[in-house]
């Protein structure tokens, strides 16, 4: 459980809370969109190299296999 800031009253609120206990502002939608944004940002972070290596490697392997199988 982490503390987040309520966008309505700026008080600290539990990340599990659905409404702010101080002002009653609904946090559910904001918390879910922030979580999705953070998750999306975290997934790609540091793993771009995997795409840059795996795509050319897959192309090379396909060309190599077709060359072996269909050489005249």
From TrEMBL:
Domain Zinc-ribbon: 6-27
Keyword Transmembrane helix: yes
Keywords: Membrane, Transmembrane, Transmembrane helix
One family name in Pfam for this protein: Zn_Ribbon_1
Stored InterPro entries: Zinc_ribbon_dom (IPR026870)
Membrane-spanning segments: 49-70
Protein name per the record: Zinc-ribbon domain-containing protein
Organism field: Rubritalea halochordaticola
């Amino acid at each position: 459980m982490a503390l987040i800031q309520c966008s309505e009253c700026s008080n600290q609120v539990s990340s599990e809370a659905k409404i702010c206990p101080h002002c009653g502002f609904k946090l559910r939608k904001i918390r879910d969109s922030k979580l999705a944004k953070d998750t999306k940002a975290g997934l790609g972070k540091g793993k771009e190299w995997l795409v840059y290596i795996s795509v050319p490697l897959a192309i090379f392997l396909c060309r190599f296999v077709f060359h072996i199988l269909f050489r005249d």
